[in-house]
Amino acid sequence: MVDLTFTPHIEILSTEDVPRRRHWSDADKIRLVEESYRGHRQVSATARRHGISRGLLTVWRRQYRNGELSLESGASFVPVKVAPDLDSQPPREPVPAVQLEIVLKSGRRLLVPSSVEPDALARLLPVLEGK
Q1: Nearest C-alpha neighbor of 94 from the set 111, 114, 110
Q2: Which residues contact 101 (CB under 8 A, 6 or more apart)?
């Protein structure tokens, strides 16, 4: 009689065995994108040649077209337009007085000019409502 004993084979996977994610500089991305634009149907061939996915290269191509990839550092110049000095502008015409209508809880209506000071109005309203 044959004695068959089962001894399982165990394989231990370590994170050290897995290649880490690569980080591509903007200069490398631009070089690969420009290479992919040379010739007909070069996206897949360029991606295969450099070991990246075709989708990633397509994303880089879109970023390249939109100007999101650049060889420059993060600092850049932005055009600025200086507004004229406020003191040198001609005075504005005064806004015509507008009346505001405030309806109190008691049903009374109060008409006040729009130029009334908010603090004065805040002191007046409780008196008018009888609080």
Answers
A1: 114
A2: 109, 110, 111
Nearest Cα to Cα of residue 52 among 40, 62, 41, 44: 44
Closest to 34 (Cα-Cα) out of 57, 68, 66: 57
Helices in 37-115 by DSSP H: which ranges? Answer: 42-50, 54-65
Residue 92 CA, chain-centre distance (Å), reads 38
Task: Give the span between the Cα atoms of 9 and 43, in whole angstroms.
Answer: 42
* HSE (side-chain half, CA atoms, 13 Å) at 10: 3
pLDDT tens, position by position, 42-80: 889 999 999 999 999 999 999 998 888 877 655 566 677
Question: Structure pTM?
Answer: 0.42
